[in-house]
Amino acid sequence: MGRRSRKQIEDDMIAKIVVVFLAVGGAVSAIVWFATKVIRSVAARWAERPADVIIVAIALIFLALILLSLKTNIRVFPKPMHDALHRHGKTRSSPRVTNTGTRVPTISDDPPINGHEFEHWVAAKLKADGWDATVTRGSGDQGLDIIAWRYGKSIGIQCKRFKGSVGNGAVQEAHAGRMYHHCNAAAVVTTGRYTRSAKDLSLRTGVILLTPDDLPQLAQIAGFASAYYNWPPRHPAQTSKPTG
């Protein structure tokens, strides 16, 4: 087969461009036709039964708000509904995508029993939600197991994989680690319970007391993501106020 002339190549390119324009024009025309039919149908329905159209519009708005909450973690519903939606969202089997575009494999909802594995599990949970989280080396960490960064701020975290109660020793360690590493905030996360003394001390020091279920909302709880949260932050695991 001989070489094609320049004119033949140009003619082929023009033909392809024409085909593309015709295809795009046909698709746009079909979309416009369909949209026109829908609008006319809605208008006719509105004239006959306006209540039906209002109900459908409210349902679509509600669905859009649910998608907005799941995709952006913005709280558009009361906290119990917001938390329920995100607990449901954590059961997805497909990879998650952080706000930096990084695909993160799905992480088990059940925390591991081993304490060291629990630290890495917490760090992985935070990374899946867009945090830059690092597990400390263990020695010389001054009470912090994880240091995480987001929105230009850092938080030091003490992890306790307990079945029983966590006392104020963990709060003291987290507070000392925050001062040593110059973190903006400090937190303790545990699978167990917090003693009354731990809750009282956390209110005095500003150390946040968390459970694993609080991790998806950590940026809001710590006051990193919203101006509506002021320091000292709210403590989800606390139920009492300091005495005296």
CATH topology of the largest domain: Trna Endonuclease, Chain: A, domain 1
Count of helical stretches: 7
The largest sheet is: 5 strands, mixed
Strand order, sheet with most strands? 3-4-5-7-9
Helix content: 40-55%
Order of helices and strands: HHHEEHEEEEHEEHEH
| Rg from alpha-carbon coordinates | 27 Å
Distance separating the two termini: 96 Å
- Structure class: alpha/beta
User: Which overall shape is indicated by the principal axes computed on the Cα atoms?
Assistant: elongated
Q: How many E strands?
A: 9
How many discrete structural domains?
2
Weakly predicted, low-confidence segments? 89-100, 227-244
The CATH class label of the largest domain is Alpha Beta
Question: How does CATH name the architecture of the largest domain?
Answer: 3-Layer(aba) Sandwich
- Average residue-wise pLDDT: 77
Strand content: 5-15%
Task: Please explain how this structure is put together.
By secondary structure, the chain is of the alpha/beta class. It has 2 domains: 77 residues, no CATH class; 133 residues, Trna Endonuclease, Chain: A, domain 1 (3-Layer(aba) Sandwich), CATH 3.40.1350.10. The chain is built from 7 helices and 9 strands; from the N terminus they run H-H-H-E-E-H-E-E-E-E-H-E-E-H-E-H. The longest helix is centred in the N-terminal third of the chain and has 43 residues. The N and C termini lie far apart (96 Å).
